[in-house]
Design goal:
The protein is an alpha+beta fold. The protein has one domain. It is built from three helices and eight strands. The strands form two sheets. The protein has a four-stranded mixed beta sheet, with no helix packed on it.
Length: 175
Amino acid sequence: MMNIRTIFLTALLPLALASCGGGKKDEAAAVYCPPPLTVTDAATLTRFKPGPGRDPRDVMFEASLTGAGTACAMSRGRMDIELKMRIAVNAGPSVEAGTSSVPYFVRIIDANGQVREGRDFNADYKLSTANPRGASLEELTLTLPYDKPTELGGYRIAVGLKPTPEELQYNRRAK
């Protein structure tokens, strides 16, 4: 007959094993998880109403990328990257009631500085004079295939808002 101690230890064994670290895959994911890099010229975006005016009265909205982070998990031959980005938006004097769309991009850059993969997205906000602020947490899952985990060293993820050429020039002049 089993005593209480044997039953107790038998019940605790699976819990103890489950609480052990994930081992080499978790360590490799932590070491090789590519950090997000916010592109300086694409950290903010000022959208103006259509037309020639470019003074503060003509601003429809201003957006900024306020933070980005990654978490990674590895499995055989691939790294899954969970990317989170926070985008904040403020309505300007010329905001049009309805949906304001803020374009943003994500680029996976390899150790040689080459873009391996790139995608463009939109974050949509309902802005008006009555509702002048918005924020969102954009969450994406990216996958990097590999033969050896060491191949992942040096990868980076470039993120930013996607201004038009004119908006980019405005960003650069504003600095």
